[in-house]
Amino acid sequence: QVQLLQSGPEFKKPGASVRVSCKTSGYSFTYYGISWLRQAPGQGLEWMGWISAHNGNTNFAQKFQDRVSLTYDTSTTTQYMELRSLRSDDTAVYYCARDRDAYYDYWGQGTLVSVSS
Amino acid sequence: DIVMTQSPHSLAVSLGERATINCKSSQSVLFSISNRNYLAWYQQKPGQAPKLLFYWASTRASGVPDRFSGSGSGANFTLTISGLQTEDVAVYYCQQYFGSPRTFGQGTRLEI
User: Fold this and answer.
1) I want to staple A107 with a disulfide (CB 3.0 to 4.6 A). Which of A97, B7, B32, B102 is the partner?
2) Quick check: A106 and A37 in contact, CB under 8 A?
3) What pLDDT, on a 0 to 100 scale, did the predictor assign at position B37?
4) Could you give the CA distance from residue A42 to residue B46 in angstroms, rounded to a whole number?
């Protein structure tokens, strides 16, 4: 069955960077892209960006364009999201989700990233 | 950006009754060539990741009970839950994937 297993919680100081991983299984890795989304405490869902696992093409929401990198390792079927120059308002649960024509049919369990001095 | 507006913000419905959640987009999300609405619905229970309910506005995702239905076209959409059950308590989100960035409604909290 399709599974997306994310890395554990991260506690960072302002200005630092964080990398979240998303280990995928149960489907042909290069056939589907992955989107990354986040949810601030008590808030709604926000799409950050997308990466094709076929050719590495990316598309980002403009607000994250300069601070986010999306990469993957085909050999381990793992996706990665790096967010730089962290601020307190980056505190959120970050999700990877399998991107199916830009709707999301399978989601990771979420990774809490907490940014505080 | 396409703005998605859901109503109501919260909703309390009795067990066995019907719940209706509305979603309005700031522009049409209907792609005329394919006649498909680029609209999805998700259910998020407390402490869990969202779960896909519908895509293309009315295509039910695998395993979703048929008491859930999605309808609408253009810029106005509805999620209906008939015969409400306790496990339906959740926050429901609509999402457009017609334009980039992909955007979500603010969510509707459904309670018993």
Assistant:
1) A97
2) no
3) 97
4) 10
Measured between alpha carbons, how far is A92 from A20 in angstroms, rounded to an integer?
Answer: 12
**Long-range contacts of range A41-47, CB-CB < 8 Å, 24 or more positions apart?**
A41/A91, A41/A92, A43/A92, A44/B93, A44/B104, A44/B105, A44/B106, A44/B107, A45/B42, A45/B50, A45/B93, A45/B95, A45/B104, A45/B107, A46/A92, A46/B104, A47/B101, A47/B102, A47/B103, A47/B104
pLDDT given at position A101: 82
Of B53, B11, B45, B33, the C-alpha closest to B98 is B33
Instruction: Give the mean pLDDT of chain B.
Output: 97
Select the residue of A44, A100, A102 nearest B102 (Cβ to Cβ). Answer: A102
Could you tell me the two tokens for B91?
């926050």
Q: Are strands B30-31 and B39-44 parallel, antiparallel or unpaired?
A: unpaired
> Is B102 near chain A, with CB under 8 Å?
yes
Two tokens, residue B43 = 């259910």
**Runs of H (alpha helix) within chain A:** none
Please state the length of chain B. Answer: 112
How many Cβ atoms from other residues are within 10 Å of residue B47's Cβ?
8
